[in-house]
Structures are given as C-alpha cells and as structure tokens.
Design a protein that fits this description.
alpha/beta; Trna Endonuclease, Chain: A, domain 1; 2 domains; 13 helices; 8% strand; elongated
Length: 362
C-alpha cells in the first residue's frame, strides 16, 4: 500500500532549493510567496514545536516528486496514495538539517507527532500546540491547490526561514593547528568561490593585513567595513584602510565586479582625490582589469597617485609563502576570529567547516 518515493531524488531537490535559498539570503533578496504561505510560515517558526515545520519539508518534497501522493497521509498503511513520511524524514530531511547545522529535533515523527498520525483536523484533539498545527494544515491546503512549480518556490521560502533560524544559533568553527602552503591554497581557493557578496575576500584580506602587522610589529591601524557600507557615508577611501600616525598609507578596494576605465575614474574622483590617498590597491577575484583601466591608472601615477591591481587569491598565497610557519598559523587565527563574528552569516562559517572536512577527509 502507499506510493514509493525515490530518496535520492528527494535529496537532490532539497539541496537545489536550499542552495537557491542561501543565495537569496546572502543577497538580502526576498522570496515572494502568497500572503497565506508567508503568514503560516511565520506561525510555524514562532512556535516552540519544531516537529510541524520539519514534517512540512517532507510533505512538500512528496508533492513535488509525485502529485498523486496524499500529503496528509505520511504512513504507507493509510491508503494507496499515502507515503512514508517517517522514512523520508529519517533518510533525507533530518540528516540534511543536521548536516547544514540547522537546529532541529531528532525526528518530528518521534516527538510531537504520534504513530500513524494524519495531517487533518481530527489530529488536533491530541495536540497541545493547536495553533501551529492549524498553520500546518493551512499550508498543506495551499500546496494541494497549486502545482509543482509553486511547491518548489514554497520549499525554497521554507528553507530560507530555516537558514534564518540557523543564523540565530552558534556555529562552532573547525580549528586547525597547521596547514601547508598547498593546503592553504586549496582552502582559500575554495572559500573565494563561495558566493558571499564580496565579504569573504574582505575577511581574508583583513586577516592577512592583521597578520603582517602582528608579525612585523608595524604601527598600523587597520580599518575595514562591511561590503555593503557606503564608502562616502562612512568617510573612508576603501573596503580596507591602513593608517599610520593618522595618515592613510594604503587603501584597498576588493571587488567581484569588472574593473574598467570608468570604474577607476569614478574611484579616483570619489575616494582617492577627496581623501588624498597616494597608494590605492584594487583586489579582484574574477576578470582582469581592462587595458583602458590600466592606462588611466598610469596617468594618475604620473600625478603622484599609485593605483595598482592584484588578484586577491595570488596575493594571499604569495604572502603566506613569505611570512613563515609561525605567521601562517597567526593568519589562520586572525581569519577564524573574523569569520566567527556575530555579524558573519552562518552559511560562510559552515562553508569553512565543510572545506576543512573535505581537505582532511573527515
């Protein structure tokens, strides 16, 4: 009895929509869903009962995979259109939530939801948190009345709320005592490929400047800001500003966008000239600056302003190669100190942990 589900397909769908939700979260974008979905989601996540929102994931997956499934019947013995919601949770949903370090129960079907539960109003009689369960029923009704495309959007929206739940929790970073230069290259290269809105290149660069300052006893004051903070509003000349005796000795702009002539001219007029900066450095992580950008930088050099371009990954690796083992360990400490900040998205912390596990095969 009941309809079977391909658990590998379910894993793939869940991973796809979670990745989309992460991208939207990091961009600060809104996933637009009908008001009824928005309202019921808020009720489910404001509830102390975790089981209902976790069980909902399996229901949506079942609906996407097989529209003939009755998503209100999560046990195979409940009818020919029922599905095995408990097994789907045990094989796919719960391991996924734990792997993504999202706060969750051991299993919704072992906590608030009793054996052979049905997602209908009859079940309300035996539940304490009736408001949250009614929200679940309302959500299920909306899924039933829409197609698979809508269900994927709802799943993505649901995943974004789980990500927000994770952001409020503490993520323990993986600490490592020693890394070879090759291992640093693997980790840094992997981290720079993670969509972060430019935040990761900034953190890595700040960590390196802090390391250079500490290891060589320099009288530097290093100021940096979030990637989305206006330079003009904050009164600084770049993403990272290095000062000595109140004088700016270097300003750094870290960019994932193309650097063309107009970008250099605009930077000169709005940042370099107003702040009297003589040494300005563009760190880039993707496309090389255009030849026109380099030409105008040479013109400004003749006027006394050094404007240079460096690939951030190469600079980091070359710097690590010249500062020695002790300072390489200091760099790791500095980077993890910055990455562990409360204002740093948990997604980036988990990305670091994942790459460390992959590097050491754990």
């Amino acid at each position: 009895m009941g309809r079977s589900i391909d658990y590998d397909v379910a894993k793939e769908i869940l991973e796809q929509e979670f990745q989309k939700a992460e991208e939207q979260y990091l961009k600060g974008s809104t996933i637009t869903v009908p008001p009824v979905i928005e309202d019921t989601t808020q009720k489910l996540f404001s509830s102390a009962t975790q089981a209902f929102r976790e069980a909902l994931i399996g229901c949506i997956l079942a609906r996407i995979i097989d529209s003939e499934i009755d998503i209100r019947l999560p046990y195979m013995n409940q009818g020919e259109n029922a599905f095995n919601g408990r097994t789907l949770d045990e094989k796919v949903v719960n391991p996924f939530l734990h792997d993504k370090m999202i706060p969750c129960s051991k299993s919704p079907y072992l906590s608030a939801l009793r054996r052979n539960v049905s997602f209908n109003e009859e079940t309300l009689k035996g539940l304490r948190d009736k408001d949250a369960f009614i929200a679940l029923l309302t959500y299920l009704k909306e899924i039933e009345e829409n197609d698979g495309i809508s269900s994927r959007l709802y799943l993505q929206h649901l995943m974004k709320n789980f990500i927000q739940l994770r952001e409020a929790s503490h993520i323990e970073l993986a600490h490592i005592q020693r890394l070879s230069l090759e291992q640093f290259g693997t980790l840094i290269g992997g981290m720079l490929q993670i969509p972060s809105g430019g935040l990761l290149p900034v953190i890595l660069s700040v960590a390196m400047f802090q390391t250079i300052k500490d290891c060589f006893g320099l009288n530097w004051k290093i100021e940096w800001q979030g990637i989305n903070v206006s330079d003009k509003a904050s009164g600084v000349g770049g993403d990272i500003t290095i000062m000595e005796n109140s004088a700016v000795i270097l300003a750094v702009e870290i960019t994932e966008r193309p650097i063309d002539r107009s970008r250099v001219v605009s930077t000169f007029n709005t940042k370099i000239a107003p702040h009297g900066i003589n040494d300005y450095l563009f760190f880039f992580s993707s496309a090389n600056p255009t030849e026109e950008a380099r030409d105008v930088a040479r013109q400004y050099f003749a006027q006394g302003h050094d404007i240079s371009f460096l690939p951030v990954q190469d600079w980091l690796i070359h710097s690590l190669g010249t500062i020695g083992p002790k300072c390489r360990s200091q760099f790791t400490e500095n980077f993890l100190g910055l990455l562990g900040g409360q204002d740093i998205p948990a997604t980036l912390k988990i990305a670091w942990n994942d790459r460390v596990k992959t590097l050491f095969g754990t």
